[in-house]
Amino acid sequence: MNRCSCLGLALLLVSSGAFAEAFSYQAYVEFQGRPLDGTRDLRFRVYATATAGTPLASALSFDDWGVQRGLVDVPLDFGPVFNGQPRWLELEIDGTPLSPRQRISATPVALLALSGGTPGSAGAPGATGPAGPAGNAGPAGSVGPVGATGAAGAVGPSGNTGPSGATGPAGAVGATGAAGSESPALLAGLPPAAAFGISTSPQPSGVGVRLAEVFEISLPSNGQLQVGALVLRRPLSGDQSWRNWQAQRSNNISVQMRIAIGNGLVQWRLDNGLAQGWELLIADDGLPVEQIRLRFAVGSISRSHDIATVSGPPSAARVRGFSSGQAPGAGYLARWQGVDQPTWRVLDDRARSFPVSINNGAPQPSGADSLTGLWLRVNGTAQSDLFNALQTAGNRSIRLSLTSAAATFVTVDSAQARVSALRLLPSDDGYWVEDYRVDAP
Description:
Layout: E1 4-6, E2 14-15, E3 23-31, E4 34-35, E5 38-47, E6 60-67, E7 71-76, E8 87-93, E9 96-97, E10 102-104, H1 107-114, E11 195-201, E12 210-211, E13 215-218, E14 226-227, E15 230-235, H2 241-247, E16 253-261, E17 264-282, E18 288-295, E19 301-306, E20 331-336, E21 339-341, E22 345-346, E23 352-353, E24 356-359, E25 362-365, E26 370-371, E27 374-379, H3 385-392, E28 396-403, E29 408-426, E30 432-439
Antiparallel strand pairs: 1-3, 2-3, 3-4, 3-7, 5-6, 5-8, 8-9, 8-10, 11-16, 12-15, 13-14, 13-29, 15-18, 16-17, 17-18, 17-19, 20-21, 20-28, 22-27, 23-26, 24-25, 27-30, 28-29, 29-30
């Protein structure tokens, strides 16, 4: 049977203006496992219950409405149906209602406040930002003066050791050292118009889902790709799906992470995931959030790219305490497979060394040279060249060059570079960045 399935809201419901009942609805819909396309007849109804019940307003119809790459985007206005109580939205496509209904939250409640309804309770405070590193310890208190030395008496026989004397008072506390500087934010370098969303199936996980920890794929010396855990985080609610996935050891979980810019879309898709762990964590404001830990096989992970313009570069997000001394306008450029990559950032240093032993008091080489790998950082809009190189484990060409007004210096030039690891890191602006390790002899 042909079916459409809504994999969950890709974006938040957004108010269309002050003192209005209208809002925009966006969703990602698949038909027979592929994104829905073409013109469709859409019907929307709003209910006070998750199942059954009578619509609270007349259905909204959108005949011959355009759907591209599975994205449904329509303006909705049901009138004054939002009174602070839960509401559920039902979507019907070409005469077929999709199930389950989707709960409407956040923005419609805000619209009620704008239209003069009874205000809802205040939301929880936002999370407190991370604290800067501790300052240096203050200097020790001054030592008290030494008493005058008495005259020496005659030496008598040694007596028994007496008990230890009482500890003297502590010196005064020194002044508090200056606070250390905070680490710079990790920014993906995407334009303000970029939209981000994480959705799951077979059950949607709602809004506010974020990548919680670094997700890593590595290629060890045995040549078999190893995949770490994907950890997602969301605000705690009455939804029990994540807890149930772990309790039932579900192994059919799919995750889609998307960045949309205009009509373009980049998507990571991970299928047939095993729910390994579930946990509650206390956030910086003292309130709980929940996390789900999922495990995937390397063959069930894919990355698709359909964005014409690549944004970037992302930030390096670190402070070394010294400058390169280069003149303004100098750049460090990566060339991959003969093509310059101005939106890639070279992240780590290169170092070559060998072990040393001491022979007859003198240092001597005692082994072969070792060379550290370098790391390249891109944001979510980058092409899939580096990910494809990790999957195929083949040789690629790479060239790194420092370019200034005075000269150009090549630091790395290798035709046998191999991508050996990937790390997906959550960025401080709500997206993610991708770090790739490249071993270039």
